[in-house]
Amino acid sequence: MDLGTKRGVIDSFLCRDCEVIAVPAATNVAEILALKPDGVFISDGPGDPQAVTYVVETARGLVGKVPLFGVGLGHQVLALAMGAEIRKLEHGHRGSNHPVRSFNNNRIYITTQNHGFTVDDISVASTDIEVTMRSLNDNTIEGIRHRILPVFSLQFDPEGYPGYSDTGIFFGQFIDSL
Are residues 103 and 132 in contact, defined by beta-carbon separation less than 8 angstroms? Predict the structure, then answer.
């Protein structure tokens, strides 16, 4: 789902031998499922995720039907679709060199970010969301996944890098889930 994606995201899938079908943000669940996708990527894009309720409803309808991967705005959309809330950051995360800790492997990733909203910590407690990553700068949520279903997302840009990327592995993880 193209919410304002960058060419680097599409290239990240193409270089991994994926067929990419980009659909507009207003595409509904039935139209997406009619394409018979192996999985759905919900892209980054500008703005407040609470302003695109139609995208949240589509994401909610896709949860449990196909593997889902969201980045940036797509991360926030998936969080909303799974019952979490979003809040505006006092100071947005902009630029590169943002350290993020993964709880899966205790590794620190240096990330590129450009957002002004975050998943609200308190709201996650009453959902099936597991927090997988946190910012080392302000402890905000940087990664989530559904506890049972193949749904995960990242707040940062995994393709955003000047040269080698150690966060490109997340595209591989999504492809492995298909």
Answer: yes
83: CB partners within 8 A, 6+ apart: 123, 126, 127, 128, 129
Q: Give 43-78 pLDDT, tens digit per residue.
A: 999 999 999 999 999 999 999 999 999 999 999 999
Whether 100 contacts 170, CB under 8 Å: no
Classify burial at 6, counting beta carbons within 10 Å of its beta carbon; exposed 0-12, middle 13-18, buried 19 or more.
middle
Out of 3.20.20.70, 3.40.50.880, 3.30.300.30, 3.30.870.10, select the CATH number for domain 7-177.
Answer: 3.40.50.880
The model's pTM is 0.94
Cα–Cα distance, 40 to 177 (Å, whole number): 11
Task: Output DSSP code: residue 163.
Answer: S
